[in-house]
């Protein structure tokens, strides 16, 4: 077993915390020592949010890591992926949801949102693998825009050698029972994008 | 059984396992999830409530502890200031059953107006304090604090902080203890429970004696532990930074303090005598360092590590390298990201506060503000809440502006929950002291910013029981405020018209209550609005409502060469504020309800 450091980032309200809870839970099930840390602040009000999750074969101390120490980033928004890029190892993987949520400063013309090409180029210049995923499109296909987090979790699950069942169990644990079915479908849809069924 | 719990969930679990019967507090980041977890997971055994404020919560817990049941109070850092008034009589009275106060500090100031180091309260209030460093310890220390509280006849404080509260780590779950104290006949022991100065004076020597005993206890308690490794460097630490220090100094010896007041002096002396260089690592003030140095022990600490903000592992490593304590680590690749657009928090699409701040910005009146989501009105594009200090301050400040003789008629903005918490006394004060000014009570039917908790203006308690709803309008009328207006928070014109009426009012204070449910309360999504590009003249008026759903389109309006606007149907919650400010009627409501929860 190899240690894995995750960073999950996005915009408040996108469901990043549930995603990080799932990643943490899966690590525990897979036999790792696990710690995680969320920075919520005013998160539900559309600010930047960030969670660290650490899987480690041995006992862990800090629940977060610093610059250059993240193996896998799960970014819910392209600008947020870019903002957290220095956390990545050179050998790291960035999974980025392509749904752009321009901050108010961009809408009011005070600041410029970087172009898709610029963001992608900068991500690629820094890490080994970048996987853009259109999770919003998939979520809307399932009829619920809120399940983008689980689409992304589905995709993420294809990058790790952990049984799919652990992931499904964790999804079950952290989504409201009322929305379980659509979330499980979203998980499968994410896996399909990742090339696995 | 092993589970991954946040520090807050672990504290709730500790209350359950430790036999708490009454748990209360006021919501505040980063502490809110403790009572939410209690009410969700342990409601069969624990009574939990959101009290109107922290001081009331403290007295509720005291009353329960006097009655013989174990109780817990939870608060964010600044709530300590509110509850301290009541906490400070408890070491004098003692109690019939265990009482623990859990405070979550906010090192780094992620969601608080200051960065106070609440460890000082233990000295000031003469209350023993424990400090966990992970979720397991959160749980264990709550259980232990309850037991020790009874043993030493004093409340205990457990000090957590954001990085513990909102971090998850592994916890071994146990059963609820079998020997739970039950309510007994209320003690008529006036000399013990009445803090009349004559009685209280007699308690002072008892408190001193208690602390002597507590010091002895601290010397041998396994709350404090030594990890012997290399003796060249020894570190005294506690809380979350202890965890960071273990990673940054993997070979050093550690004295890990779980009980931080009172300190175990002999243990500290013994540890420091057997190591070559002593380092004290703590966030915020030199709380431990000052006391350790006062023992005549040579140590380094705040000359190496900053006295404010977090000392995350990366920062700790950097400081230690600079001080020559560790070898420099290989240089990390950091690329310059340039000036990325900032992403400040913002009123949600469909927020009932938007129209009010649109009106306040338009009328350019001075606004004393308060604590809650509406403080986002201080940010662009509104820039319309000019002060914010502490809970309820807006209304007191408004009166101060008036009595200063300021030439402008000012406005205070305060939320419904904050009004109940600390806004009522200053409004009564305004009436009594013949003030003038406008108080806007922004009633969104919840305590929104902290995650949507109940308050006395709502019809359901934390336990999910139906309850009497207190009508703010009638309450304010009963205070003899002569102009009280309730308005639809989503009606831009009505809000502006009423605000002007209130500003012109000269017979005492005026109160405008804006009524509109928070989108997290109503949960009834309305069809999204859309922009008719034929009618849009790219005047950008709709952008002045500062809604994340109103974005620039790629289409250019030929006359002014500016980008037209469009509405993101996924983000829009259909409140219609943008359509009310559009001068050409270009924004209309669609029929289609976008796929939403």
What report would you give on this structure?
With 197 residues, chain A is α/β, with parallel strands linked by helices. Chain A contains eight helices and six strands; from the N terminus they run E-H-E-E-E-H-E-H-H-E-H-H-H-H. Chain A has helices at 16-29, 78-83, 104-107, 116-126, 135-141, 148-157, 164-174, 180-193; strands spanning 4-11, 33-39, 48-56, 70-75, 88-97, 129-133. In chain A, helix 1 (16-29) packs parallel to helix 6 (148-157). The model of chain A has no long low-confidence stretch (mean pLDDT 94). Chain B has four domains: 2-218, Thiamin diphosphate (ThDP)-binding fold, Pyr/PP domains (Rossmann fold), CATH 3.40.50; 225-322, Rossmann fold; 354-522, 3-Layer(aba) Sandwich (Rossmann fold); 529-589, 2-Layer Sandwich (Alpha-Beta Plaits). The two termini of chain B are 34 Å apart. The radius of gyration of chain B is 27 Å and the shape is globular. At the A-B interface, helix 1, strand 2, helix 2, helix 3 and helix 4 of A face strand 8, helix 11, helix 14 and strand 21 of B.
Strand order of the largest sheet of chain B: 3-2-4-5-7-6-12
Number of helices of chain A: 8
Radius of gyration of chain A: 16 Å
The number of distinct helices of chain B, counting runs of at least 4 residues, comes to 21
Q: What is the rounded Rg of chain B? A: 27 Å
Quaternary structure: heterodimer
- Helical amount among residues of chain A, as a percent range? 25-40%
Range of strand content of chain B: 15-25%
CATH superfamily of chain A: Pyruvate-ferredoxin oxidoreductase, PFOR, domain III
In the CATH hierarchy, what is the architecture of the largest domain in chain B at level 2?
3-Layer(aba) Sandwich
Q: Return the CATH class of chain A.
A: Alpha Beta
């Amino acid at each position: 077993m190899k240690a894995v450091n995750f960073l999950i980032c996005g915009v408040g309200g996108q469901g990043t915390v549930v995603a990080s809870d799932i990643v943490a839970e899966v690590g525990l099930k897979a036999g790792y020592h696990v710690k995680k840390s969320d920075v919520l602040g005013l998160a539900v009000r559309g600010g930047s949010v960030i969670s660290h999750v650490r899987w480690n074969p041995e006992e862990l101390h800090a629940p977060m890591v610093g610059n250059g120490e993240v193996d896998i980033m799960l970014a819910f928004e392209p600008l947020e992926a870019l903002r957290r890029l220095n956390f990545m190892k050179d050998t790291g993987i960035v999974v980025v949801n392509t749904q752009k949520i321009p901050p108010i400063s961009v809408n009011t013309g005070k600041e410029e949102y970087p172009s898709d090409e610029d963001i992608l180029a900068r991500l690629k210049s820094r890490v080994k693998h970048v996987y853009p995923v259109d999770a919003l499109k998939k979520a809307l296909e399932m009829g619920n825009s809120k399940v983008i987090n689980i689409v992304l979790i589905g995709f993420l699950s294809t990058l790790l050698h952990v049984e799919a069942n652990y992931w499904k169990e964790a999804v079950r644990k952290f989504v409201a029972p009322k929305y379980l079915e659509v979330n499980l479908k979203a998980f499968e849809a994410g896996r399909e994008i990742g090339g696995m069924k | 059984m092993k589970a991954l719990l946040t520090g807050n969930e672990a504290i709730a679990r500790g209350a359950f396992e430790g036999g708490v019967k009454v748990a209360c507090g006021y919501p505040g980041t980063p502490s809110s999830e403790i009572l939410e977890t209690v009410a969700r997971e342990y409601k069969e055994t624990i009574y939990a409530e959101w009290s109107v404020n922290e001081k009331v919560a403290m007295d509720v817990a005291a009353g329960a502890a006097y009655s013989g049941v174990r109780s817990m109070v939870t608060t964010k850092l600044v709530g300590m200031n509110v509850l301290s008034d009541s906490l400070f009589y408890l070491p004098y009275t003692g109690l019939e059953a265990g009482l623990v106060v859990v405070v979550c500090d906010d090192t780094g100031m992620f969601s608080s107006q200051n960065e106070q180091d609440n460890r000082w309260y233990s000295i000031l209030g003469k209350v023993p304090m424990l400090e966990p460093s992970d979720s397991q310890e959160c749980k264990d220390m709550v259980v232990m604090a309850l037991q020790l509280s009874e043993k030493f006849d004093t409340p205990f404080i457990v000090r957590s902080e954001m990085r513990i509260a909102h971090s998850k780590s592994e916890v071994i779950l146990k059963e609820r203890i079998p020997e739970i104290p039950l309510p007994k006949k209320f003690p008529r022991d006036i000399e013990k429970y009445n803090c009349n100065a004559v009685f209280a004076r007699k308690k002072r020597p008892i408190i001193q004696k208690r602390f002597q005993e507590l010091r002895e206890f601290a010397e041998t308690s396994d709350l404090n532990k030594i990890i012997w490794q290399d003796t060249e460097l020894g570190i005294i630490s506690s809380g979350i930074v202890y965890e960071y220090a273990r990673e940054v100094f993997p070979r050093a010896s550690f004295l890990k303090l779980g009980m931080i007041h009172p300190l175990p002096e002999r243990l500290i002396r013994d540890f420091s005598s057997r190591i070559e260089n002593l380092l004290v690592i703590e966030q915020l003030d030199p709380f431990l360092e000052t006391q350790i140095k006062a023992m005549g022990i040579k140590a380094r600490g705040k000359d190496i590590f900053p006295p404010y903000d977090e000392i995350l592992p990366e920062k700790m490593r950097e400081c230690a390298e600079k001080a020559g304590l560790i070898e420099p680590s290989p240089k990390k690749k950091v690329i310059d990201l340039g000036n990325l657009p900032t992403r400040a928090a913002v009123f949600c699409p469909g927020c009932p506060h938007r129209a009010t701040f649109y009106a306040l910005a338009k009328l350019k009146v001075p606004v004393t503000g308060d604590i809650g989501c509406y403080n986002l009105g201080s940010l662009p594009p509104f820039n319309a809440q000019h002060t914010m200090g502490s809970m309820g301050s807006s209304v007191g400040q408004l009166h101060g502006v008036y009595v200063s003789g300021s030439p402008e008629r000012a406005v205070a903005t305060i939320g419904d929950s904050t009004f109940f918490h600390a806004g009522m006394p200053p409004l009564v004060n305004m009436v009594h002291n013949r003030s003038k000014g406008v108080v806007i009570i922004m009633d969104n039917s919840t305590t929104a910013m902290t995650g949507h908790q109940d308050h006395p203006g709502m019809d359901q308690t934390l336990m999910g029981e139906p309850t009497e709803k207190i009508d703010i309008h009638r309450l304010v009328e009963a205070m003899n405020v002569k102009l009280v207006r309730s308005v639809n928070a989503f009606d831009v014109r009505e809000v502006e018209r009423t605000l002007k009426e209130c500003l012109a009012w000269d017979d005492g204070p005026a109160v405008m209550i804006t009524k509109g449910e928070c989108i997290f309360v109503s949960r009834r999504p309305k069809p999204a609005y859309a922009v008719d590009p034929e009618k849009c003249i790219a005047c950008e008026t709709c952008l002045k409502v500062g809604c994340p759903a109103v974005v620039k389109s790629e289409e250019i309006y030929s006359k002014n060469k500016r980008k037209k606007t469009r509405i993101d149907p996924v983000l829009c919650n259909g409140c219609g504020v943008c359509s009310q400010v559009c001068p050409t009627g270009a924004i209309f409501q669609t029929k289609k309800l976008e796929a939403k929860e």
